[in-house]
Amino acid sequence: MRYVELALVAAVAALALTPLVRALAIRFGALDVLDPRRPHDRAVPRLGGVALVLACGVTLAIQDEPRALLAANGWDVPALLAGVLVIVAAGVLDDVRGLGPLPKLGLETVAATVAVAGGYGLGGVTNPLTGGFVPLGPLGPLVTIAWIVGLTNAFNLIDGLDGLATGVALIAAATLFAIALSEGRTDAACLWATLGGALAGFLRYNFNPASIFLGDAGSLFLGYLFAVLSLQSLQKGATAVVVLAPLLALGLPIMEGGSPSCGVCSCPASRRSCAPIASTSMTG
Question: What's the CA gap between 48 and 50, in Å, rounded?
Fold first, then answer.
């Protein structure tokens, strides 16, 4: 029942907080531009990830048992929170003002480094042929940073259609919750239940037609959280399957959806190769 309670509290919190965050996104101009390939006839607010972060934070703040379980099982909660704050700040900056690829990658690396400093890391990998453990030694921190940054960006790529990234994250959280429960990892199960509840509540507003998008604040937060939690709860293989499989399956549609035509001809909007034609047509 503790898991049901966590999920319900997180879902209610997301349902209540998302409209408030949506209003803030509109006020600060964090809006997704109109896209002829999307079923929206208006600009849609971003920053939905802020609602997810707040819903999870409120749920864990008012529940004593999850915090006690995390402390008892060696989780460095301050490091986890610090990394989340860095990655969400990067997403918010990108949603509100726009952030170049290099600054974004730099902040992602900082967040990953904070997690590694907090003890979230890969000490080794399992040899798929022999089943033996292969220690990474001094390469461990670098491989860990690559894992966190890679999975963080994988979620960022999935976030291309209404409800897609949220739905994938909800399925992944439910799967990893079941695995954690079967392995007796009650600490990890509490976190997956909380995240799953928040995602379920947010999906009410993110389902087609979406009234708010996750934005980079949400997609980066989800990718980072899945990457770090899977390290601590020893679920790296399962996480890679449930997160990366949809990315591989939907990679072509996502890339195609990311290059809309300009509305005048079939050229990509980013190139605007038909701008002179468009100008001539509009002036008669």
Answer: 5
pLDDT digits (tens, 9 = 90+) for 130-167: 766 677 778 888 988 998 998 888 877 777 677 788 88
With b meaning 16 or more CB within 10 Å and e meaning fewer, what string describes 186-209?
bbbbbbbbbbbbbbbbbbebbeee
| 283/40: higher pLDDT | 40
Which residue in 172, 171, 174, 159 sits closest to 220, CA to CA? 159
Diameter over CA atoms, the chain:
73
- Gap between the Cα atoms of 153 and 159, Å rounded: 10
| Closest by Cα among 103, 61, 268 to 111 | 103
Residues spanned by the domain of 263:
2-283
Q: How far apart are CA 164 and CA 157, in angstroms?
A: 11
The tally of domains found in the chain comes to 1
Q: Which two tokens stand for residue 140?
A: 């461990």
* Model pLDDT for residues 252-262, shown as the tens digit of each residue: 344 444 444 44
d(CA 180, CA 175): 9
Phi, psi of 125 (to 5 degrees): -130, 160
> 179, 238 in Cβ contact below 8 A?
yes
> How many CB atoms are located within 10 Å of the residue 118 CB?
19
**pLDDT in the model for residue 262:** 44
**CA angle at 128 for the pair 136 and 134, rounded to the nearest 5°:** 20
pLDDT of 59 higher than 90: yes
